[in-house]
Amino acid sequence: MIAECLAVEFAVTGDDCPLAAATRETDSAVDSRPPQRRRDGNALLRFSAPHGAALAEALDADDRIRYLHASHTDGRTNYRCLSRQPCVVHELIDAGFLVDSIRYRRGEERYAGAVVGYDVLEGVLEAAGETVGVTLERVYPLGDEDERAVARRWDLTPAQEEAIRAAHRMGYFAVPKGATASEVAAELGIGKSAFLERLRRGQAAVFDQLFA
Q: How far apart are alpha carbons 104 and 24 in whole angstroms?
């Protein structure tokens, strides 16, 4: 049994996958689940973005994308489609990366997940470096506190969690405030009203579970 598991975050540049290209073209951000690789070579993509037609139009015009479907909820648009181009993250997964989340923003990507030990981490970095530019942004051992946090998962959407994390990091909840709602929204690449809606919904979900 391996005793050490590491939480890691990667920043990836130079990827020409459809989601990276579309967010670069439309100056937008996308939150994605790990893509599912199919036996026919296609990848099933599931992701969400703020409401807007530009991203959908860019993806629809990409010959590598098929069966694009969009639905709307919680101030976001949820997408599903098939991509004919293999995703770079599959190279990392094959090398041992346990991916939790992927975020595309203006053509760049950030992967968050875990690896089992430093030897596996080295292999993941080598695999990524063969195809794209990759920077190890953060790495730390997972301990008991992290495991307790995983055991108690808050029922939040990725967008709500991102809004709460950004607000906390930038001092939005501090007294006096370290950042305004407009500043946090700009950091997230969304409008002020969309940020406040995610924040309120996220806070309500946390409070409902905390005080249940």
A: 9
Structure tokens at 47: 């992701």
Query: Is residue 9 within 8 Å of residue 110, measured between CB atoms?
Result: yes
Q: CA-CA distance, 138 to 186, in Å (whole number)?
A: 23
Structure confidence by residue, pLDDT tens digits, 23-77? 999 998 898 988 888 888 899 999 998 888 899 999 999 999 999 999 987 678 8
Q: What's the confidence (pLDDT) of residue 81?
A: 95
Angle made by CA atoms 200, 205, 211, in degrees to the nearest 5: 120
Burial class of 95 by CB neighbour count within 10 A (0 to 12, 13 to 18, 19+): middle
Q: With CA atoms as reference, report the closest residue to 114 among 81, 92, 131, 83.
A: 92
Predicted confidence at residue 150, as pLDDT, reads 41
- Helical H segments across 41-157, by residue range: 53-60, 88-94, 118-129, 144-151
Q: List, in sequence order, every residue forming a beta bridge with 10; answer none if it has no partner.
A: 111, 136
Which of 84, 87, 39 is closest to 66 using CA atoms? 84
Residues in the chain with pLDDT values less than 70: 1-3, 74, 129-132, 143-154, 212
pLDDT value for 131: 64
Q: Report in angstroms the alpha-carbon separations of 187 from 148, 170, 172, 197.
A: 29, 9, 12, 16
The amino acid at 60? D
Distance (Å, rounded) from C-alpha 146 to C-alpha 207?
21
